[in-house]
Amino acid sequence: MSETMAAGGTRTLQIWRGDLTSGELVDFTLETEPGMVVLDAVLEIQRSQAPDLAVRWNCKAAKCGSCSAEVNGKPRLMCKTRLDHLPADEPITVEPMRAFPIIQDLVTDVSWNYEVNKKIVPFTPRDDLPEGDYLIDQADTDRMSEFRKCIECFMCQDVCHILRDHRMHNKYYGPRFMVRLASLDMHPLDGVDRIGQIADDAGIGLCNITKCCTEVCPEGIHITDNAIIPLKERVVDERHDPILKIFKRNKERPGKKKPEATG
Amino acid sequence: MVMEHHEYDVLVLGSGGSGLRAAVAAAEAGAKTGLVCKSLLGKAHTVMAEGGLAASLGNVDPRDNWETHFQDTMFGGKYLNNWRMAELHAKEAPDRARELEHWGAVFDRTPERKMSQRAFGGHTYKRLVHIGDRTGLEMIRTLQDKTVHSDVDVFMETTITKLIKDGDRVVGCFGYRRASGEQITFSAKAVVLATGGSGRIYKITSNSQDCTGDGYALAYEAGAALVDMEFIQFHPTGMVYPPGVAGLLVTEAVRGEGGILRNALGERFMEKYDPKRMELSTRDVVARSIYTEVKEGRGTPHGGAYLDVSHLDSDYVRRKLPSMYDQFLELAGVDITKEPMQVGPTCHYFMGGVKVDPDTGATRVPGLYATGEASGGMNGANRLGGNSLGDLLVFGRRAGIGAAADAAKLAPISLPPDGVAEAQGEVDRYLNGSGTENPFQMHKDLQKIMGDGVGIFRDKEGLTKAISQLESLEARIDNLKSPSNRVEYNPGWQLCREMKNMLTVSLMIARGALLREESRGGHSRLDFTAYSDYWAENNIVVSSAGGFNMELTPTPVFTRDELTELVDARKESEKAS
Fold first, then answer.
1. Is A60 near chain B, with CB under 8 Å?
2. Does A197 touch chain B (CB under 8 A)?
3. Is A243 near chain B, with CB under 8 Å?
4. Binary contact (A51, B483; C-beta < 8 A)
5. Residues in CB range of A263: below 8 A, 6 or more apart
């Protein structure tokens, strides 16, 4: 930072404008400032050229996950994407996330995600915990913490083939909620047996591990490797391992109870 | 067309930490509870809190206790705090922290596997429960999940523009759905304002775009009193470069973990300003120190101070400050494990807010409650880092319980139609009226006025000029009109009412700042540089009784010996050092 960044000069943004019925890319040209991010450019266009341009944003600090959009065809947080990191010799396209219904311009209806989240049984402490402070290893904390970094930008949901191409929103919760389920399943003090929900209602079997979700995660969560694959393995172990099955007939996982309802 | 209408016992406005905690408490107390938020759930400004939650658990330093936390809070607030709030906060924060963990929050651990605690400015002992540098996100997500599994109806992306009263009592509110523009009314036996602060009145701010002082303005219009509005916390360390991120927060945890401040000459300048606490002095002191170094010509190339953690182990830095590492690498091209950051003050927090009963969050208007940053008193003239996350939980819960108890005593209520019609008239005017003022331009003008005249250092001349400029905006405020009359997700329409709220708040701040002829905490006057004994005993209280009204009320002093002794002991020990 001791060196001043070069000024960006003039850039053209092609921003998608429209609603659920129709829309198109519209060209806007603006003078850029050093270090400008896509959201800065969009807000400057909103202020000076297109005051009704709809864009959802809050923190402009890559912490709230509101300003997700498809920049040059790839899901990105607009507040974290610098103009000078995008090819200089072509216009920058900014489009709404395509896996969700459009509300207006860059704003999409992501309410489905909130409905899915409601179905996930919250953290419920095991009933065999001793009195007093919760005792948890830092190693467990680090493992859960990776998943709990999620800022719910829903870009993983946006690129997931199961949701984006096959529209199987009623059969698969999507990578965001696999991450959430993993954080709960790996909590050492959680008392809920989540395998049934993970395998059945959440539909983990539908994921075919293309890792598209991992590639777009702005928090760098290893969604596929650290959340989905271990959960898949747990399902296989619990559901299909014949030897374990015999054991299980006599013995539940200590402290874990099947939820009464997953609704 | 029939307008969407809902009825609740308790309606909470705002979905940050205090709003979520209030909603959970109200629902647990048996109230039919609704929660309205301007943005999506989980996106509120609390998500940006980084450093931690102050609670005297004593996990890392067993000497800690509520008494010391109380003393630290009072000292940090320059003894202008509401004593009862500081007491309740210090006593109850540990239980609120444990409760979060019981709801699934995950915090960093000690070697004994308990919640770890880190050092922070103004806290005598290591006290802040944390997870890396994203404690606010952890808190929001935990409370968000607790809320959706409690019996609470959530209305996302819904803007409230007016509290509706029946006689003296607040009985509901009016607003619109942002996505469709459709109008909506709520009747509620009790309304809890959990609307946060108003940082967007400044250009350089760490605050989210939602922080437009809505609750302050709604409460003011409804007849509530606001206290300490002249005290604004400028966080010492915001990013200063590149321009698009100027103001973005650099967590105090950077200093808590051992970060060192230097000027352009390489001097560790905090030795001059607070040799005892150095980088971990209170925020008002560090912010003024950086500002002074820059003003006197010892600033960095981009007009700040250097903040350096490159002497620390680089893996440790990446583990303890992961989002700071990413933020500087991505946005500024700086690897903080190898080179220093450049930082400067940024508007961060409003110590003032709606005046409430400490125990219940009740305002002086029946049916109206306030909590979190929307309320005032707990932090006095300056807030300690980590005390806001505790504040949200302690007083969010108390306001939820208070509102539910109030609601339980009332028969069903209804909204007076003329109140609704008036509210409708206002939002319609912004959309279809004959106004000519552009809200984007006026917002830019407001930010300039506040930055120039009501910033970190103030004087009579600058404040007087700012007030007259603000008054000229006020004369034009009813002439605001959205540049577009589309109803669906219209940012100009949204900004019209927010602009009015921000102007209302700005006037309170500027007028209070002119009246308070001393320097204390987050209020520094160049023409009155010292503490004043007179002002030590007075809070400025603002209300709309008969037009803009400002009065002084004596600082609430506790006669209880226990608290008096604690404060006297602290004053003595500060004098001795």
1. yes
2. no
3. no
4. yes
5. A119
Distance CA B425, CA B167 (A): 20
Task: Check residue A81 and report its DSSP letter.
Answer: -
Domain boundaries, chain A: 9-108, 111-250
Query: Inter-chain contact B488–A54, Cβ cutoff 8 Å?
Result: yes
Class of the CATH-defined domain B234-346? alpha beta
CATH topology of domain A111-250: Fumarate Reductase Iron-sulfur Protein; Chain B, domain 2 (1.10.1060)
Active site residues per annotation of B: 235, 255
* Residue whose C-alpha is closest to residue B567's, from B53, B119, B127, B86: B86
Q: What is the pLDDT of residues B19-42, one digit of tens each?
A: 999 999 999 999 999 999 999 999
Task: Kindly report the CATH class assigned to A9-108.
Answer: alpha beta
**What is the distance between the alpha carbons of residues B367 and B346, in angstroms, rounded to a whole number?**
35
- B139 pLDDT band, cuts 50/70/90, is very high
Distance from CA of B43 to the nearest CA of A (A): 5
Q: What is the pTM for the complete model shown?
A: 0.95
Contact yes or no for A52 and B490 at CB 8 A = yes
Q: In what order do the strands lie in the sheet with B305-308?
A: B232-239, B341-350, B305-308, B260-262
Give the minimum alpha-carbon distance from A128 to chain B in angstroms, rounded to a whole number. Answer: 14
- For residue A245, the model assigns a pLDDT of 63
Across chain A, which has 263 residues, the per-10-residue mean pLDDT values are 64 97 97 94 96 96 96 96 93 96 97 97 94 94 96 98 95 98 97 95 96 97 98 90 62 62 42
Mutate to test the interface with A, among B20, B45, B47, B57 (most CBs of A within 10 A): B47
The predicted complex's ipTM stands at 0.93
Residues of chain B with CATH 3.90.700.10: 234-346
Dist. CA B407–CA B404, nearest whole Å: 5
Mutate to test the interface with A, among B35, B38, B40, B144 (most CBs of A within 10 A): B40
Distance CA B477, CA B64 (A): 50
**pLDDT at res. B269:** 97
Helices (H), A95-171: 111-119, 138-148, 155-159, 161-164
- The residue with tokens 């915990």 is A129
B481 → chain A, closest CA residue = A51
pLDDT of residue A262: 42
Of A37, A135, A148, the CB nearest to B114: A135
Task: Tell me which chain A residue has its CA closest to the CA of residue B443.
Answer: A47
pLDDT digits (tens, 9 = 90+) for B399-434: 999 999 999 999 989 999 999 999 999 999 999 999
Question: What does the mean pLDDT of chain B come to?
Answer: 95
Closest to B230 in 3D by CA, of B515, B573, B556: B515
> Could you report the per-residue pLDDT of B503-562, keeping only the tens digit for each?
999 999 999 999 999 999 999 999 999 999 999 999 999 999 889 999 999 887 766 788
pLDDT at B184: 98
Task: Tell me how crowded residue B436 is: count the other CB atoms within 10 A of its CB.
Answer: 9
**The CATH classification of domain B421-537, taken from the options 3.40.50.720, 3.30.200.20, 1.10.3720.10, 1.20.58.100:** 1.20.58.100
Q: What is the pLDDT of residue A2?
A: 42
Q: To the nearest whole angstrom, how far is the Cα of B188 from the nearest Cα of chain A?
A: 25
Of residues B423, B446, B441, B450, the one with CA closest to residue B481: B441
Mean pLDDT for B246-263 is 93
pLDDT tens-digit profile of B156-196?
A: 999 999 999 999 999 999 999 999 999 999 999 999 999 99
Query: Would you state the structure tokens that stand for residue B265, as one six-digit string?
Result: 């000459």
Q: Measured between CB atoms, does A110 come within 8 Å of chain B?
A: yes
User: In this structure, what token pair is assigned to residue B194?
Assistant: 């959990």
Listed in order, the ranges of chain B carrying CATH 1.20.58.100 are 421-537
Q: Does A99 touch chain B (CB under 8 A)?
A: no
